[in-house]
Request: fold
Amino acid sequence: MNSAATDTRRREQSPTDESSSHVLPDGLVAVVKAECETCQMVAPLLADLARRADLTVFTQDDPAFPPGVAAVHDGDLGVSWHHDIETVPTIMRVVDGREVERTVGWSRDEWRRLTGDPGLGAELPPSRPGCGSMSVDPDRVDELRVRFAGGRLRSRRVELAAREDDIEAMYARGWTDGLPVVPPTEERVLRMLEGTPRDPADVVATVPPDLVDVSVEKVAISAVMAGCLPEHLPWVLTAVEAVCNNEFNIHGVLATTMPVGPVIVASGPGTRAIGMNSGVNALGQGNRANLTIGRALQLVVRNVGGGRPGGVDRATHGNPGKISFCFAERSDSPFTTLAESRGATPGADAITVFAGEGPRCVVDQISRRPESLAQSLAACLRTLHSPKLVLGFDAILVLGPEHARVFADAGWDRERVLAELDARLRIPGTELVRGAGGIDEGLPATFADHTLPKFRPGGILLACAGGGAGLFSEIIGGWANGEIGSQPVTREVQP
Amino acid sequence: MSSPRYVLDPTSERHVAQRERLARPAGLAGLRVGLLDISKPRGDVFLDRLEARLAEAGARVNRYRKPTFTKPAPVDLRHEIATQCDVVIEALAD
Reply:
């Protein structure tokens, strides 16, 4: 039920013949259905108005309703759809083909003002809510969207054979990441596109390795296949933009023999609004938003960009996170969010993408002094990829809440934690050169006289996520960093 | 008959969605034709007759037999047919 309100919003119309046939006649225009009791109540008024004023009535169900009015039957609900009728009765005033005002339901004052008849409906109650328009009936809205908005879609329609199983058909065409995908029907893709105000034809990015311009529509198709809800789509669009650029270098991340893929760290209040998990098992299974946003991004790379394992994807082992690796930061993090620390507007919804491998756990259940915990974390960070290699790789350090609290209780902020880690990750060259420790891997002998940091400045990305119990943190190792490899990228999420 | 079902192509659309059939040959003379016996009783009687008729039309006939009618033809057999024949007569009867 909607209360009476003047509403001049208009559904975006496509410039097709179909929509131009739904131009409203000038004067008063009412939309009703016989099934609605409020419409039945105002039926005599409409009959009266039709005799005295320039009134056109569109009826959604019964062509003979209202009695005594030569109503136009909106049988295909085209008028209702194109004029965004959500409630019946709706009465509008139209001048030169344009709606100038409307009211929904029955409100004596509103109807009197809109019709210019000061005595209208004196015998009726002052107001009565209307009923739902048939054009917004949940059982019909998907079908109507295809009929009236399907022309906006440009993707090739692929016919499935009558006896073909939908899910198997997706596998047979090579469109899946190994798990079943949701078949991207027109209905589902149009519903997905409701998640963004962007035009389906807008180009989002150029996707490697085939360097294909990907449209909002194609991203929406991947989002459907991944299992996203429409409210996830802006996050997927942002993720696609964030990885498809020279800085992040998704081409290299895809093609490398190292086991990395795009890791998405999501920040901001929107993560909670779309139901993301930043708590118990945040990096694991079981949360739709976490899993489907990351998966949709990878399906774009696979299906639009053409990046497939064994093709341009040459990973020696890969990692399970290449299906999807996306999690949210805790809102109660004692530190600023990762996105904010990287320049995002405080309080904004944002994502940071990172070329990362699978997470590994740091166990320290004893340290209650921040110095001890920093030492413990540094010792584990030092072994990243190889204890003999430095400066070439970044890492995300995901502090569990119980570890984060050790630092927060001691008054250590983000900068202090990172500085203390850096101070503990200065390594004598004698331990890094080839042959040291009996390991041939390492730096050339000329570095023996130097002391080198494990990480470049800014090479540790600090985030806070995970359940409230457990004195653990997680390290996500990166790929070749800097200009030659991949830089983390932070982008604010646009609607 | 159910109405056609469609999905939207998630790819870059640089490749055709369906593989096109080869053009139908004008005649069978000199072409290698495959006949696959699906191992149903008396199928051989029918196929023997077909072979005779095809030979009269100038075709060279290769005969194949799959182990059981209850299962799809083994992939090796399908490959053998694909590499040894120019034309396959696609038909189904019971």
Summary: Residues 169-492 of chain A form one domain.
